[in-house]
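Translate sequence into structure tokens.
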Amino acid sequence: MKILSIDQDSTGLEAGLQTGDVVLRINNHPVRDILDYKFLIADDAVEMEIRRNGGALIFEIEKDANDSLGLNFAPIEVRRCGNDCPFCFVDQNPAGMRKALYFRDEDFRLSFLSGHYVTLTNLKQDELDRIVWQRLTPLFVSIHATDPTVRHFLLGLKKEDHLLDKLRFLTSNGIELHTQIVLCPGINDGEVLQKTLYDLAEFYPKLRSVSIVPVGLTKHRDGLLKLEPVTVDYAKRFLKIADDYADFFRKRFDTYFVYPSDEFYIMTGMPLPRADRYDAFYQKENGVGMMRALLDDFAEHQAPQLPLRLPAPKKVTLVSAVLAGGIIQNEIMPVLNRVENFNAELVIVKNEFYGESIHVTGLLTGQDIYNAIKDCDLGSAVFLPRNCVNDKFVFLDDWKLSELEKKLGVPVVALENEFGIIFSDQLST
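Result follows.
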């Protein structure tokens, strides 16, 4: 935990800490990472042991409970996943992408900090104890199956990982869990799915939700195990089964507990459930209720705030992937185009990079978007879903948002589902 920089006018700088100091212990506890650091400095009085120039120094610091001391550290060194899931998306990336996209992460700290899904397979008891001690809740856990044989197959495990014991320990000690199942036809459905759901229900209410998402299969699976895709007919049958489970658990828990992802509904053409089907939208970022939340927010909060007319004619282009495209075209575009002097057109982009079986916006690439819209009359700006790019505004294929903007010759804006901004003349990427 080397200090990389210290904020000006911060408590840490006033206390005499310096860039290059290494934080060893706080209040006599070792500091292993940023989570330890944030947890341990929450006290009003902090005794910090520092290594500087080969020697040890002790700093006694009085501070407010929410004072970070202004110390800045390197990002967490993420733990690598040792599992070998046959549906792992990392293995389905084509060659030639940036190195980070071939890294499988399995780190409970990122589950707490960023909502990453982890399998818990690499957790030892001391790490489980740490989760409880530091109240790292909620956590997001990929289950896939609780049947030992099926679980070992789906995660590539060589020995028992004691999943249920870990879930029991965490939930009995107050840690809230949200879980997911990647549904693989013929493998973890049917009786295997029933066992999984019933096993997980034993840990309710601390194990709060189970999302079920269809297995995603790209066209880059040479040498990988053949898996059956989720077809439209399969999805229709599954939704009936999932609703039966959800109704059963609602009678038992007064909550639906089981939540199919939006993709099942959209691919079958079935209506999206109402908001109350998702309870508290526990796993919206996993594509569970995301479209319902978007449509309701747009209808209730955004649409009433749209202007009636613009002072001068304006045209823009919106981009979507196949999965959400139909709903946006039918539910949102007509409302936007009611504004006088305004014309918005939607381009639905097929995923050529990963294959047309991949329908979600988060897996659209810069090159696919460019090829789909380069010959269109784009108007004054192009708007993309924000999850097409990462925090540095880079697409999965390493195209930069600024690069796409330069090629198209108009501003390109990553839109965070706030449609009012498309009427603004002050646009920023």
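Note: The first strand starts at residue 3 and ends at 6.
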